[in-house]
Fold this protein.
Amino acid sequence: MRLRYGDVIEEKDPDDERKLVLSGGFMVPDRNSFGHTFRDYDVKSSQQKGAEEFYRINHINQTYEFVKRMREEYGKLNRVEMNYPKKDWLHLTGLIHDLGKVLLHPVFGALPQWAVVGDTYPVGCAFSESIVHHKFFEENPDYNKPTYNTKYGVYSEVRGLNNVMMSWGHDDYMYLVAKENKCTLPSAGLFIIRYHSFYG
Ligand SMILES: [Fe+2]
């Protein structure tokens, strides 16, 4: 539910913690006398109210009794049995796989988010239709370039994923860092680092 500025949370439906009963809401004009839209303020207000409601429920319910009961219950560790893989390299890979996000930091070039995070996909050939929001590729200069917009594009034949250039982001950067530093992770670990954002 999206709250508009001016909506008043009057009471909580006792049957549903998440359902808010709104009343007394009043409509506000879309623009103020300076011609500025209220929309941004609406969103901010909505987010603030959402956060405020979270803290309200949290502060009401976190009693000494509650915490004691939860510690006793969850201290039994009887919910599920987690089997941790014995492969030590996998733990290390999990720990470092996202470190390439330092690309956002000024020291590493302060790259914009679109060049650091998000799904990755092959470039140099037609963008797969299975990629989320494929339609936006229509404005990518490569979309209409004959060299790049065929099924295999610059790749004359299928030669293994390691020979395919992926869109730039934190995956490939961390892979390059690991490779150039002669990282001793097994190839499966390097593969995880390099392709963990590849869903297309
Ligand atoms: Fe990642």
In short: Residues 98, 170, 196-197 surround fe (ii) ion (CB under 6 Å).
